[in-house]
Design brief:
Structural class: mainly beta
Radius of gyration: 20 Å
Strand order of the largest sheet: 6-12-11-8-9
Number of strands: 12
Helix content: under 10%
Shape: elongated
Number of helices: 0
Strand content: 35-45%
Amino acid sequence: KDPRTVLELAALPSLPNDTGVLAVLIDSVHIIDELAYSSKWHFPLIADPEGVALERISAGEPTQNSLNWHSAASTAGYGTPGYRNSQSYEQELFLSAFHISPKIFSPDNDGVDDEATIAYQLESGGYVANVFIFNDQGRQVQHLAKNDLLAPKGYWRWNGLDDKNVKLPSGIYVIYIEAFSLQGEKRSAKLTIIKK
């Protein structure tokens, strides 16, 4: 996001995908930080970690702690160069929450409430989420998020279309969110929204 945070080098050493060691040095002598990493630190449900960054969760935790690293969120493009890591969090604990805004939206491309925002804030990253949208008869019309790897907080947007990009009729819709972690933690919510 900010080009001033990117340092361009003439060449980078090879970074193997499976294991390796990275070090940040001053004057080629003083080590600022060092990490021996492993591809085993990636989120286990990612089929192919190629192109997925490993992100440090907390700058206050030891660099070499494998539990302090996580695959970048899919909702952040699997990497966040130049800005805050998608999986970073402060030491405070957040309550699990899902919110929708606005409660009534009108996807008519007039620039006012054209999309619904489904926001989440979890106590940590690493959850995998599915978001389903059902019409007032209980029929699924949209599978908005499919096994998205989440950052601690973020959002999805719904434009009022179904899975085939067909405009849905006005009415009441139910948004069902399910999120789970590999530690067996589960969060879910049912939210209602009115589409004009």
